[in-house]
């Protein structure tokens, strides 16, 4: 039977590793990101704002989904494959037919962003800001153009959410995630109407 002194000596040797392990468990628990509850409904819970890059006017959220018309301008746009939570990205929409409005939609959200352009154009660049806490890890994003009341065929992309570790706002790959920026550029694809 071991004596008391031997048992105390063995416990003393294990005390420091046990404390280190306990501290690591506490640090890990503090680093776990628990998403904030989503209190915004509709498209804004995915894309929190849309703005033309050449003006300060913002888009308007409209309920429902944009009216489709096969004779309206079909947009082509290069959309990335990743949505950085709280980040921004620029999307350049082009069409062979001039358009005066752009709709940004997420199917199933029950609303969409409606951007009115100053004049008819065949090329427009918009800046999308993604919500800081996206409600799903993947979602479909559609960008459509209109020359009157109805919208034409949209450019479509399946996006994957990428969380920012500190939960803070970040500009789209502007040096925050340098290695990932090259990968994101390589992953971009030109998506036309479906």
Element string (H = helix, E = strand): HEEEEEEEEHE
Radius of gyration: 24 Å
Task: Calculate the mean pLDDT score and round it.
Answer: 76
Q: Which fold name fills CATH's third level, the topology of the largest domain?
A: Immunoglobulin-like
- Work out the strand percent: 35-45%
CATH homology superfamily name of the largest domain: Immunoglobulins
CATH class wording of the largest domain: Mainly Beta
Low-confidence stretches: 33-40, 167-194
Could you estimate the helical fraction of the residues in percent?
Answer: 10-25%
Q: What CATH architecture label of the largest domain applies?
A: Sandwich
Structural class by secondary-structure content:
alpha+beta
Shape: rod-shaped
Give the total of beta strands.
9
First-to-last CA distance: 79 Å
Biggest sheet descriptor: 9 strands, mixed
Number of helices: 2
Assembly context of the chains: single chain
Domain module tally: 2
Describe the structure.
- The structure is a single chain.
- The protein is an alpha+beta fold and 194 residues long.
- The protein folds into 2 domains: 1-31; 42-191, Immunoglobulin-like, CATH 2.60.40.
- 20% of the residues lie in helices and 39% in strands.
- The chain has 2 helices and 9 strands, in the order αββββββββαβ.
- Strands 1, 2, 3, 4, 5, 6, 7, 8 and 9 form a 9-stranded mixed beta sheet that branches.
